[in-house]
Amino acid sequence: MAEREARRMVDVMASGNRPQTAISLLESRIQEAQAQLRNLRGSGPAALVLLSQCDAIDDLYETLQQQGIDVAVAGSRWQVLQENIDAQKRLFVSEVGRKKLRTARETAHPRLEQWWWFLDEIAAAEFRQRLRKAVTIFAIVALLLFGAWYVVHRYEVNRDPRLVARDQHEMAAERALENGKWANAKKEYDQAQLFAPDDSGILLARGVLADRLGHHQEAERLYRQVKTMGKITPANFLWQRGTLFLQTRQLAAGRKDAEALLRSNPQSAEAYFLSAQVHEAAGEYAAASRDYTICSQLANKQGKASLQAIAKVRNAYLLQWHPVAMTTPVGK
148 and 116 in one domain? Predict the structure, then answer.
């Protein structure tokens, strides 16, 4: 409907030899969406209007291009708007609420290229590494299992003051990680470990942060301790550590774990997802797209629907923002 309306308006304006009016309409819609984005905080579910505004802008922009109208300047502003939306995706999801966003998406039936409708899934994919343990990292693959685990876990936390303290320190550590404050994150994880000495996830995070801070001997000691505990498989160890390496901007180390994970199981959808994240972080977008595609195919065969969806969304995101890089052969 929005596309037909856009074509009708452009045809009318073009027939009157007024392409500049069509461009003005496009710029006006972009300005309205920018204003909506500036007032995002505190807007609540009303922020959903931003998604339909983006649909209208996208339809009109494509229609103008097809009419042969020069939209270079407006196109740059449209790209800036999309970058701003991407930068504020977590705030948007927080204001709208995941449930309302999913409901709106199911009603709108957006194309995959309309990536702004998938902000919740994009944010979840980017911050998967924040999950505390292997079971929570993979929990999204089995959402019902995760829900049951979460209810039980929170119930136990509320009963045990030691676990409450552990969670408080872990959350403080995660906030420090998001802000790149590695030393603060390490201190918080050290404190959390005092309340949960057998938590292999915290041990692994401490090891990765020790590496980030240049304390390599301590890191190796902590890695050995995690392996000795035997709570996670060698594959999960590489998956979790590689993800944490990327989160702490240790790209070379993350690449080594991704390569080791692929060697250990070339049919692992998770291994290809980690490899794709490494390539994306390194700006190797064609290779990242290739591995997201393989991940999606393997996840489909293995019945991992959520992982398949996330890989598809990440791949669509790359196609949206790095179309030129997608045409470059891998390895060139």
Answer: no
